[in-house]
Amino acid sequence: MNLPNKLTILRMIMVPFFVLFMLVPIGGAANKWIALAIFVVASLTDTLDGYIARRDNLITDFGKFMDPLADKLLVCSALICFVELGDLPAWMVIVIIAREFIISGFRLVASDNGIVIAASKTGKLKTISQMVMVVLVIADLGGFFSILEQIFIWLALILTVVSLIEYIVKNKNVLSMQS
């Protein structure tokens, strides 16, 4: 198990702790800042594992498959917390999570046929915009940041839909693999 893959696993391990601090009132006002710190560190592991994997030629099928899955787990957990807390409408979260299930399904079917579908540039931009959105929503700084938060919420939603369409068009051959 190489370092990038260990960082991916670490990101997945951080998710329950993030959710705990988002939803369980154990630390009072400090909870949101602890949750934010966990989310930021977990998000940075995404950047770091990709950088190390490319720099040291440590790209593996495990990493191609699990890295996007770890991102989905982290972001979707945050989005579900936001619905619970009343910070985002459920319909928006459903659209985003539905896209993640569809893409994961595509990847599973492709994987069964010996094909690994790596993240696209649009998919990576979608993930970045979602991560920035999550940081802004958790921080809830008000003023100008409220406008920025709304911009990133809609940007994340738009990139989610665009990247879904892109994946389907680019990988439509995966659909024909099933009988």
Would you write up a description of this structure?
With 179 residues, the chain is mostly helical. The protein has one domain: Four Helix Bundle (Hemerythrin (Met), subunit A). Helix content is 81%, strand content 0%. The protein has 7 helices and no strands. The protein starts with a helix and ends with a helix.
- How much strand? under 5%
- Overall shape: it is globular
Between the first and last Cα atoms, what is the distance in angstroms? 35 Å
Overall pLDDT level: 91
Number of helical elements: 7
Examine the coordinates and then state which fold CATH places here, giving the name of the CATH topology. Answer: Four Helix Bundle (Hemerythrin (Met), subunit A)
Return Rg in Å: 17 Å
Under the CATH scheme, which architecture would be assigned?
Answer: Up-down Bundle
What would you say about this model in short?
By secondary structure, the chain is an all-alpha fold. It has helices at 3-23, 30-55, 61-85, 90-112, 121-139, 144-170, 172-175. The protein is built from seven helices and no strands.
Layout of secondary structure:
Layout lengths: L2 H21 L6 H26 L5 H25 L4 H23 L8 H19 L4 H27 L1 H4 L4
Question: Which descriptors would you attach to this protein?
Answer:
Four Helix Bundle (Hemerythrin (Met), subunit A), globular, single chain, 179 residues, 7 helices, mainly alpha, 81% helix
